[in-house]
Amino acid sequence: MGETEGKKEEADYKRLQTFPLVRHSDMPEEMRVETMELCVTACEKFSNNNESAAKMIKETMDKKFGSSWHVVIGEGFGLEITHEVKNLLYLYFGGALAVCVWKCS
């Protein structure tokens, strides 16, 4: 019974976290909003496949804002990156899911 309650609490928590929580961004406002919307759409569309969500985000960003975009989606990871100024977005979505989008040449 305890395991069922734990899964219910986790599902309730993820349901509450349906908005993106920006951890860090140096993007211009318009680009940031578009990227956040794209991240939310991709994570909702591919909720069980982070690799497909990341591929969708990367391909869309490459078409819209030029090439060399990189995307990492997952839980419990750390990273250290070098990026172009005003081309970084790091956010949380759906509870523990972290999304990092950046551009480097």
UniProtKB/TrEMBL annotation:
Location(s) in or outside the cell: Cytoplasm, Cytoskeleton, Cilium axoneme
GO cellular component: axoneme; dynein complex; microtubule
Gene Ontology process terms (BP): microtubule-based process
Record InterPro entries: DLC_sf, Dynein_light_chain_typ-1/2
Sequence intervals crossing the membrane: none
Gene3D superfamilies in the record: Protein Inhibitor Of Neuronal Nitric Oxide Synthase
Record key words, sorted: Cell projection, Cilium, Cytoplasm, Cytoskeleton, Dynein, Microtubule, Motor protein
Known function: Force generating protein of respiratory cilia. Produces force towards the minus ends of microtubules. Dynein has ATPase activity.
Subunit and partners: Consists of at least two heavy chains and a number of intermediate and light chains.
The family this protein is said to belong to: Belongs to the dynein light chain family.
PANTHER family linked to this entry: DYNEIN AXONEMAL LIGHT CHAIN 4, DYNEIN LIGHT CHAIN
Protein's name in the database: Dynein light chain
Organism for this UniProt entry: Gulo gulo (Wolverine)
